[in-house]
Write a structure and sequence with these properties.
By secondary structure, the chain is an alpha/beta fold. Helix content is 51%, strand content 10%. The chain contains 15 helices and eight strands.
Length: 322
């Protein structure tokens, strides 16, 4: 299987000196009675601040995450005072086009759930249909159960979840996986949060045909496409993080690149930005490599020149991609 397991970086990713990587979720300690106390004990605010800071744009998603966090904090306080009702249902749907940050936000969401004590471990297991559904009769249940076992105590992220449902094929094994998921989503919801992800229109169709799944999803988050300005900021962020920067004229050239690339097919938002920057780094390396005798300074090594950007095929013809 090619299910991906993400380990949550814990204290390395979150500047929270009071919360070492292995610290158990704080709500176990008795007695928070104010929102501030729950926030302070759980260190959850550090994760939310980091989410705000690290991710460009996504205002509606960030607002929804704050709402969900508020709900969970208040649920904690209610529990303290014996007002507990059923555990809140936390299964979610992240809909949006490729590269809009769904996987990235799922990792942060897992940390928030972990810090507030809603999942034991806070890891994310990311799967697609092929990880859950077998080719032959009898293969699907063990496959799905194996994935569920791995995901227990954390988040199961099912990318392009609608591929589980293939009505055109009467005996498709995807249905079997859906039924097992439904059971676990109901009966073990205190130990596993399922996030379904994919294109919005296909998710909507999937939910219409699968009311049982629809009724178990408590939160729907829509990830909008990024604007050109946001994509440029994302590029800045990615370059800074990897100790590169745009040289004279290069940022303007990249902005122009984005304007052209945006209108082309298969444009995948922030993922296309990442891939484009990778290709531009490749061109920078070839350019520097060609010059055998020049001593290379840190500046040379970290600067993407305008020519590295403009060599893209996107500038050659409006209809090709590269
Ligand atoms: N708002 C954002 N700010 C900065 N980087 C982002 C943002 N959204 C996505 N990225 C980056 O873009 C890439 C694709 O994001 P990802 O979460 O895999 O998208 P999706 O799961 O929706 O296809 C990742 O490298 C991620 O770090
Ligand atoms: Mg993804």
């Amino acid at each position: 299987m090619n299910a991906q397991l993400y380990n949550i970086p814990g204290a390395t990713a979150v500047a929270a000196p009071a919360a070492p990587a292995a610290a158990p979720p704080a709500p176990a300690s008795p007695g928070p009675v104010t929102v501030g106390e729950v926030l302070a004990q759980s260190q959850v605010e550090a994760v939310m601040d980091e989410l705000d800071r690290d991710l460009i744009g996504l205002a509606p998603v960030k607002a929804r995450i704050r709402d969900i966090a508020a709900l969970l904090v208040i649920a904690r306080l209610r529990e303290q005072l014996g007002l507990a009702s059923a555990k809140p249902s936390l299964h979610m749907c992240f809909s949006g086009n490729p590269g809009t940050g769904k996987t990235t936000v799922a990792l942060r969401m897992a940390q928030i759930l972990y810090r507030l004590g809603y999942v034991r471990k806070g890891h994310v297991v990311s799967v697609t249909r092929d990880d859950l559904v077998g080719q032959y009769i009898g293969h699907t249940a063990p496959k799905t159960k194996e994935v569920l076992k791995k995901a227990m105590g954390g988040v199961l992220f099912i990318d392009e979840a609608y591929y589980l449902y293939r009505p055109e094929n009467e005996r498709d094994y995807g249905q079997e996986a859906i039924e097992i998921l439904l059971q676990v989503m109901e009966n073990q919801r205190d130990d596993l949060v399922v996030i379904l992800a994919g294109y919005k229109d296909r998710m909507d169709t999937f939910f219409q045909s699968n009311p049982g799944m629809s009724s178990r999803i408590a939160h729907h988050l829509d990830f909008p496409d990024y604007s050109g300005a946001e994509l440029l900021q994302i590029a800045d962020r990615m370059l800074t993080d990897s100790h590169y920067r745009f040289g004279p004229g290069a940022r303007e050239a990249f902005d122009e690149y984005l304007q052209r690339r945006l209108t082309q097919p298969h444009f995948a938002n922030a993922r296309s930005v990442r891939n484009a920057l990778d290709r531009m780094r490749l061109r920078q390396a070839s350019r520097l490599f060609a010059d055998r005798d020049r001593p290379l300074t840190a500046d040379d090594l970290s600067t993407l020149a305008e020519s590295d950007i403009r060599a893209s095929r996107v500038f050659a013809s409006p209809s090709t991609t590269a």
